Amino acid sequence: MNKKQLQKCFGESLRNLRIKKGLSQEKLAGECSLDRTFISLLERGLRQPTISTLFKISEVLEIKSSAFIKEIEKNYENIAD
Question: Which of 1, 4, 10, 3 is nearest to 57 (CA)?
C-alpha cells in the first residue's frame, strides 16, 4: 500500500463527499472545529487525519466512518487496477 496514493485517495473521497453534501471547505472546517487550510491539505493528499478527526468529519458529513473508509478503499482499488 502506497502511503502517498492512500492520502490522495482520502483527499478525493473527502472532496467528493463534501461537495455532495453541499459544503464549502470553510463550512466543513467550522463544523468540525478545524482550520480551513487543514481541510485543504487533507483534500490535496498532503496530510492525514487522526482517527478522531476522521470520525468528526464523518459525523459532519453524515456518513458512517466505515462507509467513508469504503469510499477511500474504492478509490484506492481504482488506482491499483
Answer: 10
Amino acid at the residue 22: G
Q: What percent of the chain has pLDDT over 90?
A: 88
- Report how far Cα 5 is from the mean position of its chain's Cα atoms: 13
Long-range contacts of 27-32 (CB under 8 A, 24+ apart): 28/57, 28/60, 28/61, 31/60, 32/56, 32/57, 32/60
Percent pLDDT > 70 in the chain is 96
Whether the model clears a pTM of 0.85, i.e. scores above it, the answer is yes
Is 44 in a helix, a strand, or coil? Answer: coil
Q: Show the domains of the chain with their CATH numbers.
A: 3-80 (1.10.260.40)
